[in-house]
Amino acid sequence: MIENSDDKIVTIFGGSKCKHDSEEYLAAIELGHRLAEAGFTICTGGYLGVMEAASRGAREAGGRVFGIVMNQFKSEPNRYLTDKVATNHFYDRLQNLITRSVGFVAFRGGMGTVTEISLVWNKLQTRVLDRRPLVLVGDCWRDVVDAWRTHLVVSDDDLAFLDFAHDAEEAAKIIIEKSKGVVVQHV
């Protein structure tokens, strides 16, 4: 076990393909930095893009960073990780990203990010996870969620599990406030 019961871990999701000068990359650096300064450990998928940016921001603030990596991936994890957890299967990786965290933040990404958000959201809806914040950062998410609501069965109760943030500062404030009192059972 790489964490102890005092760790307050926040998992950050987002695209692996964003460039170093993209809005998502810069915002993820800021969020990682703000959360590390507030005493949180950052957890990501461990590779490039938003994962690297959040890891970088946390490390530059003196924070701890977990990377949940896949043994099958040929690429190297980003250099900002302090700890790695290697998994063999996608579901194990997702479980590791989710079960240890007091909150979640998602930046714009691709289908991997949508999969991660969907699984967290579903676990919150079905009470497999106790209530904790799921923050969607950036203007794109309202349109995406509106489309889901229009074309899928998504209720007001379902939407109550989501928080929307315009930027990293707002996302950090939501995580800091709404994660108070969240207790994670470490397995």
Q: What does this protein structure show overall?
A:
The protein has about 190 residues and is an alpha/beta fold. It has a single domain, classed as Rossmann fold, CATH 3.40.50. Helices cover about 40% and strands about 15% of the residues. The chain has seven helices and seven strands, in the order βαβαββαβαβααβα. The chain has helices at about 25-35, 50-60, 90-100, 110-125, 140-150, 155-160, 170-180; strands at about 10-15, 40-45, 65-70, 85, 105, 135, 165. Strands 4-3-2-1-5-6-7 form a seven-stranded parallel sheet, with helices on both faces. Helix 4 links the parallel strand 5 and strand 6. The radius of gyration is 15 Å and the shape is globular.
Topology of this protein?
Layout: E1 9-13, H1 23-37, E2 41-44, H2 50-60, E3 65-70, E4 83-87, H3 90-99, E5 103-106, H4 111-125, E6 134-137, H5 140-151, H6 156-159, E7 163-165, H7 168-178
Parallel strand pairs: 1-2, 1-5, 2-3, 3-4, 5-6, 6-7
Helix pairs in contact: 1-2, 1-7
- Tell me the CATH topology: Rossmann fold
Under the CATH scheme, the architecture is: 3-Layer(aba) Sandwich
Question: Percent of residues in beta strands?
Answer: 15-25%
Which structural category do the helix and sheet elements fall into?
A: alpha/beta
Low-confidence stretches: none
The description of the largest β-sheet is: 7 strands, parallel
Q: What is the count of structural domains?
A: 1
Q: In percent, how helical is the residue content?
A: 40-55%
Strand order of the largest sheet: 4-3-2-1-5-6-7
Extended strand count: 7
**Morphology call:** globular
The tally of helices reads: 7
Distance between the termini: 8 Å
